[in-house]
Design brief:
With 164 residues, the chain is mostly helical. It contains seven helices and two strands.
Length: 164
């Protein structure tokens, strides 16, 4: 067994046995181990943290588009005759304009005298479905032609009017 003699100013030399020193180190290590976290628990917390950070990064800045409807004046500017746009874009803007008007004023631009009816709701719903199920202009035009039906009386009167 080795002994270690330490001298301190003004005191008698203290003899510390190496064995006592090792016991103190062991006690300190035990205390630190008791205060520490197991590797499984640490990995679990780190995985939860990583998933939360990933979720935050992937979802930040994404607002629900349903809540972000344009104001009436914005939609109105896209419905002017001098604005070049496809039929698909025009229908999309018309539906947005109708929805904005209904929300802000209660006036239905598709209905007679601004009154919303079952027919105007059906027109808006069908046009919305056509927009949702098509991607390009050509596909939109084909789907719209499938959905729209000519009024026989109106077609006949237009034919007679064009003959005269």
């Amino acid at each position: 067994m080795k002994t270690n003699i330490q001298f301190f100013a003004g005191e008698e030399p203290v003899v510390v046995k190496e064995e006592d020193n090792k016991l103190e180190q062991i006690k300190k290590l035990k205390e630190e181990l008791e205060k520490s976290v197991s590797i499984e628990e640490y990995n679990k917390v780190m995985q939860e943290n990583k998933s939360l950070v990933d979720e935050y990064i992937n979802n930040r800045g994404q607002d629900k588009k349903e809540d972000l409807k344009p104001p009436i004046t914005y939609a109105q500017t896209f419905l002017k005759k001098d604005s070049p746009m496809s039929n698909r874009d025009y229908i999309k803007n018309a539906l947005e304009y109708r929805e904005s008007m209904l929300k802000e004023t209660g006036y239905d631009v598709f209905g007679d005298k601004g009154v919303s009816t079952e027919q105007t709701e059906k027109v808006a719903r069908v046009l919305g479905e056509v927009l949702e199920t098509t991607e390009g202009q050509a596909e939109f035009r084909l789907k719209l032609n499938e959905v729209l039906k000519d009024d026989a009386v109106l077609v006949a009167s237009l034919r007679n009017k064009n003959r005269n």
